[in-house]
C-alpha cells in the first residue's frame, strides 16, 4: 500500500514537473524535437462494462434444511454501462509513450438471487427474488506503455500496462420482487427497493490492462480514442465486512468474494505541454 | 494543478486510513433459514464452547401442546454446522444455558410424566439427559450458585408450591425449599399458558444474591413475586407484583443489596442500573417504579448481564422495542448511570431471546427475525469487544 502510494505521488510530481517546463524557452512547432519527445496532458472520459467473477460464494443466510446452492447469485456479464473520467498524462518519445490516466472509474455490477418457502398445500408457497445493482467507484491509477504503429496525423497504437485502484465509493440497490401462491396461482409484485452506501464492503484493486486505439492530431489538440480490457487479480470484497450488521444482511443479501474484469472505451483530449504559454494557448 | 495534486494525495491518505478490520469470529449477523412454509422458530438460550456456539430453540410438536426442543450448533463465526431435533419426549426447556467447565446445562421435562430432567451439552454438542429425583413439577427457570450447583425453580401442582432446588451436575438434589402460592389460588393455568404460549410468557428467573441468600421470581402468595430466601421455611423478603400483570422481569445482583433490574407494571416498563432492593421485608415492585420506559414492547423478554473493561464494570440490560428492534442499555454498575444505548435491527423486525458475554469479550444477541416479513427465523448477532469499546 505504501509503495503504491509513493509511486502514485511520484507520478503526480512528474506531472508537476511537466508544468514547470512550460516556463522554459519554447521551441517552435515543427521542429523535429516536437515529434521525438513530448509531454501531453489532457482530460479523458468514457464508458465501461464490468463483469464480476465469483471466487467464493456466500449465501445470504444459512439454510438449515435445504441446499446452499439454491441461494447462489447469478451474475450478469458486462450488462450495465458505467462512466469514467479523469486525466491523461503521457510522455512520448520516438514512437513509444508512457501514459498514466488517474481516473474516477465506476464499475456497475448486476446479479440476481432468490429463494422460496414451501408448505404441504399447493397454496403454501412464497418466493422472493432480489435484483442487486452494485456500483463501485475507484480512483484508478494505471501505467501503460503505448506503441504508435503508424506515424502521421492519424496514429494507431497498441498498449499494455497495469493498474492499482483505490476504492473511493460504493452504492448498492436491491430491488425485491415477491411471488405469492395464496390463491393457488402465482401473483408477483414489486415489494420494495433498498438503496444504501456500502463502501466499507470493498477493498482496493489491482490488475493488468491492454488495449488498442488511435490518436488524431488536428489543430493543436491531440484526440486519443482507445478500447481497453482490464483484468483484476484480487478479490475486491472485504471479507471482514461481509457479516457485519447492515440493511442488506438483515434481508439476506450478502456479498460473494469476486474479482472484476472490464471493457472500456475512452476518448482523451490532450495538449502538448512544452508549447503552451501561461494563457494555455499553443505557441 | 497543485490543488488537484493535494486533493489526490489527501484522498489517498484517507483511503490508507482504513477502518479496523474484524475476523469472522469477532462481529457478525447470521440468519438461519428453514424452507418449510409452516415452521416457526422460537430460540430461547445461547451458549458457546471453545469451538461451537449453541442455540437452544423450541419447536411446535404434533403430539403435545408443550414445545419440543431443537439445538442448533454453529461455528464461532456463526456459520451453521447442524441442527438436532431432540426426542419429542423432552419439552419446555428453561431459558438459560448454564456453562460449567466446557459443558452447558439446562432443565426440561418429560411431556408425559412432567418430571424434570437435567440436560447437558458437551463441548462437541453431544446431549445427555438425567431424570431428577423429585416429584412432578414444571421446571420454570435455572441459575447457578457460587458452589457450582445448579439452581432450579419449579412448580409443584400437587402441593401448589414454588420449589427452589440446588442440583449437582450429575442430577442429585442437594437442597430444596418450597413456598406456597397461597391457599385457594390456582396458578396452573397461567403456568401451562406460559409453556404452551396460549398467553404471554411469564418472567421466571432465579439466582444467588451476593450475601449468599437466594432469590427467585415466581408465584408466591397469589402473585408473581420476587422472593428472597435462605432456603428456610419462609422467605426472608418479598417484592410482590400484581397477579401476573406487574412484577420484576429480570435482575442482576451488583453488590450488597443493590441490583440492576427491569420490571413491568401492566404494559409499562421501568428499569435501573443500580437500586437497593429490600430483601428483608415485604414490598411491592411498583415501589421501585422510577420512570416509564416507553420504548420497550409489552411482554418483551428481557435479560441483564455483567460486563467489564478492566476495572470498569457495567450492567447491560437487553430487551425488545415497540418497533421490533433489540435495545441494549449500558449502565455503569458503580454509579447506576446510563452510559449508552444501542439498537439492533434494521429493516426486518428483530425480536430478543437471549444475551451472552463470550470469552473473547464480545457479546452475542439471539432472537428471531422475519424473512420476507412473514417467516420467523433465528438470527445471531455478535458485537466485538472493539465495537463495545466505542459504545461504552
UniProtKB/TrEMBL annotation, chain A:
Protein name as it appears in the record: PorT family protein
Gene3D superfamilies membership: 2.40.160.20
Keyword rRNA processing set for record: no
Coiled coil start-end: none
Residues spanning the signal sequence: 1-20
Residue stretches making up the Outer membrane protein beta-barrel domain: 19-236
Keyword annotations of the record: Signal
TrEMBL record, chain B:
Lineage start: Bacteria, Pseudomonadati, Bacteroidota, Cytophagia, Cytophagales
Name the UniProt record assigns to this protein: Uncharacterized protein
PROSITE patterns found in the cross-reference section: PROKAR_LIPOPROTEIN
